[in-house]
Amino acid sequence: MTEPGAPERIGHVDVRAYAELNDFVEPQLRGLTVRRPFRSHQTVKDVLEAMGIPHTEVDLILVNGDPKDFNHRPAVGDRIAAYPMFEALDVGSTSRLRPVPLRDPRFVVDVNLGRLARLLRVLGLDVWWSTDADDPTLVDVSVREQRILLTRDRALLKRRAITHGLFVHSHHPEEQTLEVIRRLDLRQRLAPFTRCVRCNGRLVAADKEEISDRLEPLTRRYYEEFSRCPQCDRIYWAGSHYVRLLRLVERLADRLATGAAPGGWPESTGRPPV
User: Fold this and answer.
1) pTM of the prediction?
2) What's the pLDDT tens digit per position in 58-99?
3) Phi-psi region at 5: left, alpha or beta (left = phi > 0; alpha = psi -120 to 50)
4) Which positions fall inside the Ubiquitin Mut7-C domain (predicted)?
5) Burial of 150 (0-12, 13-18, 19+ CB in 10 A)
6) Which helix (H) or strand (E) holds 62?
7) Secondary structure class of 221 (helix, strand, coil)
8) Rounded to an integer, what distance in angstroms lies between the CA atom of residue 262 and that of residue 272?
9) Separation of alpha carbons 43 and 114, rounded Å
10) Up-side HSE of residue 37: CA atoms within 13 Å toward CB?
């Protein structure tokens, strides 16, 4: 035990990150066992995050071959191995560090990932997104509403309050969408065109006669089926953007499919925006 006023002990541990956790490590250190300095008060979580690895990305930690949690305090010379989500290693489910998956996956998306938020809503997923949300707001929404935080901000994912978070690796919206769906195995939860892309509300069928006065003459003449968002009152129908969005959805479905027919996911009930 360190006496009051005595200098804090500094030692070293050997750390190796596996698979995609190497994306967070300096390029010259990827795939290598790295000797890292640490202080006696630091936990395994502190050591890994000092290397740039957010705790939300780690599914399993082995210290000298034994599974440990984030609060474990390593000893000098310990060997730490960190594994990401879905990394194949048969050590038993009780050793996993990630929290119990949410029964109904919902998301809070960082302000800089607006196009990802829109695409996830197009696919029917529940997504909270705001153009003026700061970091404390994102953390609060994630914790209070039990939403998975999607961000490219590593520092944000390192906040202790965040239990469900995902670092989005790609810079391109379509690739980001596929990445989220694949990593969280969401394919069977997709229901395209069932949510409002503007406010995230669930769309409901709208009677044409009840909304007729809000329609342009040509829209009223050529379209019969409409949906409405109860939250923001926006009206949807299969207008000029339908083909473009439908092709996008089918393209994503084809890339996700593994032996299934193209476009194979739950049938939608809504309509894309015009």
Assistant:
1) 0.75
2) 988 999 989 999 999 999 999 999 998 753 344 444 345 555
3) left
4) 13-90
5) buried
6) strand 58-63
7) helix
8) 19
9) 35
10) 3
Q: Tell me which residue has tokens 């003459």.
A: 217
Q: Bridge partners of 66?
A: 63
* pLDDT single digits (tens) 142-192: 999 999 999 999 999 999 899 889 999 999 999 999 999 998 888 889 999
Partner residues linked to 128 by β-bridges: 108
Q: 3-state class of 97 per DSSP?
A: coil
CA atoms within 13 A on the CB side of 241: 10
Q: Are 89 and 83 in contact (CB under 8 A)?
A: yes
As a whole number of angstroms, the distance between CA 116 and CA 192 comes to: 14
Fold of 11-84: Ubiquitin-like (UB roll) (3.10.20)
Residue 158: exposure state from Cβ atoms within 10 A (0-12, 13-18, ≥19): buried
Kindly give the residue spans of alpha helices, DSSP state H, lying in 30-163. 44-50, 114-122, 135-144, 154-157
Cβ contacts of residue 134 below 8 Å, gap of 6+?
A: none
Tokens of 129: 């997104």
Q: Which amino acid is at 101?
A: P
The pLDDT of residue 5 is above 70? no
